[in-house]
UniProtKB/TrEMBL annotation:
KW Oxidoreductase (keyword) present: no
Domain HAMP span(s) in chain numbering: 311-363
Source organism: Paenibacillus sonchi
Protein's name in the database: histidine kinase
Keyword Metal-binding part of the UniProt annotation: no
Length: 572
């Protein structure tokens, strides 16, 4: 036969604690790590997105700067008046030298970037001014302006397909035309209108180098090993900023990267950033190491504390076990002394009380059985009260002699109902409704006996009628009032039945002579004198069936009446 392993209580206490401790520390640690990494990643993402927005705003500032140049031409009304004149000779020369050329010179100085300003006019009376460039990008050398006749470009594909959107002066668009793509330039094209006549008079083209427009796009502002890409509307790469040695081609195909994007309004382009996950892994590794260190220190401190607490309670439990073993051996004089007021101290107090009252409890157990039998016997005796029956039969005899058939009929009927409800087929429990009917039958008999000297009122909650109760609890209280409460020639009694949360409360209230505190104490005393026997009987039977928390209470003072209250639980 295998011997059972006896594990000390201290080990049983510390092992679940350690398991719970590890689970709690691991749960908190994992949650803290995941939350910290997510917060760090989200914060980094917000910072990077903010950097992209700043680049976007810088590019927007450059494009707005170029658009202000075209808008200045559009709202130059003196220039419009000059272009509206088709006079040749001196007037043409004067328009070129005093109006058109100075206006274009001023616009070139409006920005620090090298730009090319081209003006295509429908007025062919004005001469053309342009440069002949072979292969070199003209924007690499200096700022300059050119004047062409509109007929030079009217048959070109890009002009015929040119479509403007927006409202005045927003009839403009950014587009690469002629040699812009080869030279790395982009042009802002805006229609030039005669505002007064609502007629097109030309086209303005401002060319700028893409690298000047996008000079704020620098991968070093995002982070090492990151890549910045500017894509046009068709998804073609316009500009890419990445560290030396980085992969060429489309970085969107690279795995394990965070992709951020910002639209470049006006240009119709997209600014995209590709950040490798290694940028986050380094910070996540630091968070992981710090979380692990905090979890280890917390687990160590809590484990030491748990061992100390386990030893402290183990010693107290062992002391209780030793005392219980002494009880098992028949030594009821063993006592436990614990300082404090915790649960173990309460156990010690209860243990000491148990040892002191063991024999008394055994004695009370026999007494309780005797009281139960006595209560049952008294209940049976109360069901058939010879004195009440004798008085009622005497009243019936007198009514028969006087020929009062109506009252005689009522008394006989109520007496039959009274004893039918009293017997209750031999069952101890009945419903609240039947108990109230039993009390009303008794009251009806007594009202015939006392006539107008007795007044009884009822205040019954219909919600309580179906609940169960011990039978014969109201009639003894009403009988007690009729026997002892008379104060003068009249007596008023009020029967109240109501529900209070999970309890049912019965009240028998009279306006009689009342009782003093000593009389009330003697009535409710279990071993008191034989006064108020009916009330004490009701109280003992209720406590027998429902427990000591229920029963009869009396509130009264001499000369002002009495209120006898019964409380039972709500049970079906």
């Amino acid at each position: 036969m295998r011997r059972k392993v006896n594990i000390p209580f201290g080990y049983k206490l510390i092992l679940p604690y350690v398991l719970c401790l590890l689970m709690a520390v691991l749960t908190v640690g994992l949650f803290a790590y995941a939350h910290s990494v997510n917060s760090l990643r989200e914060k980094t993402r917000e910072n990077l997105q903010g950097t992209l927005r700043q680049m976007r705003d810088n590019i927007r500032y450059r494009t707005d700067d170029i658009e202000r140049i075209t808008n200045s031409l559009y709202y130059n009304y003196s220039l419009q008046n000059a272009l509206r004149r088709y006079d040749q000779g001196w007037y043409s020369y004067e328009t070129m030298t005093k109006t058109l050329m100075p206006a274009l010179e001023n616009l070139l100085n409006y920005t620090a970037s090298n730009i090319g300003l081209s003006l295509y006019l429908q007025n062919e009376t004005l001469p053309e001014i342009f440069y002949k460039d072979e292969e070199q990008n003209p924007l690499l050398s200096t700022k300059r302006y050119e004047i062409y006749h509109l007929t030079r470009i009217q048959d070109t594909d890009w002009y015929r397909l040119l479509q403007f959107s927006g409202t005045l002066p927003g009839l403009s668009r950014w587009q690469q035309i002629l040699r812009d793509k080869e030279d790395g330039n982009i042009s802002l094209l805006q229609r030039l209108d005669d505002v007064q006549r609502g007629k097109e008079i030309g086209l303005v083209r401002v060319s700028v180098q893409i690298r000047d427009l996008l000079d704020s796009v620098d991968y070093r502002k995002i982070g090492e090993y990151s890549t910045l890409v500017v894509l046009d509307a068709s998804g073609r790469t316009v500009l890419q900023s990445s560290p030396e040695g980085a992969e060429e081609g489309n970085p969107r195909t690279a795995p394990d990267r965070l992709v951020l994007s910002e639209p470049l309004y006006g240009l119709g382009w997209q600014l995209q950033a590709y950040i490798p996950d290694s940028l986050f892994d380094q910070s996540a590794g630091e968070v992981r190491r710090m979380t692990l260190l905090v979890c280890l220190i917390s687990a160590l401190v809590l484990a030491v504390l748990g061992i100390w607490v386990s030893g402290y309670f183990s010693r107290r439990i062992q002391k209780i076990v030793g005392s219980l073993n002494a009880f098992h051996d028949g030594d009821f004089h063993k006592r436990i002394r614990f300082k404090g007021n915790d649960e173990l101290a309460q156990i010690a107090i209860a243990f000491n009380r148990m040892g002191s009252n063991m024999e008394e409890l055994i004695h009370k157990n026999y007494v309780a059985d005797l009281q139960k039998k006595e209560a049952e016997l008294e209940s049976l005796q109360a069901q058939i009260n010879p004195h009440f029956l004798y008085n009622t039969l005497s009243s019936i005899n007198r009514l028969a002699q006087f020929g009062d058939i109506g009252k005689l009929h009522i008394m006989v009927q109520e007496l039959a109902k009274f004893y039918r409800l009293s017997l209750n087929r031999g069952e101890i429990l009945t419903t609240v409704g039947k108990e109230i009917e039993h009390a009303k039958a008794y009251v009806a008999i007594q009202c015939i006996k006392y006539g107008e000297r007795l007044s009884v009122y009822y205040d019954i909650d219909p919600e309580v009628l179906e609940y169960a109760t011990v039978k014969l609890i109201l009639q003894p209280l009403i009988e007690n009032a009729l026997e002892h409460a008379w104060f003068g020639t009249t007596l008023g009694i009020r029967l109240v039945v109501e529900k209070r949360e999970a309890e049912i409360v019965f009240k028998v209230i009279d306006n009689g002579v009342g009782m003093n505190a000593d009389t009330i104490r003697q009535i409710l005393a279990p071993e008191g004198p034989r006064i108020g026997y009916g009330i004490r009987n009701v109280d003992s039977r209720i406590k027998l069936h429902h427990g000591s928390g229920y029963g009869v209470t009396i509130a009264s003072r001499s000369g002002i009446g009495a209120c006898i209250q019964i409380t039972i639980p709500c049970r079906m």
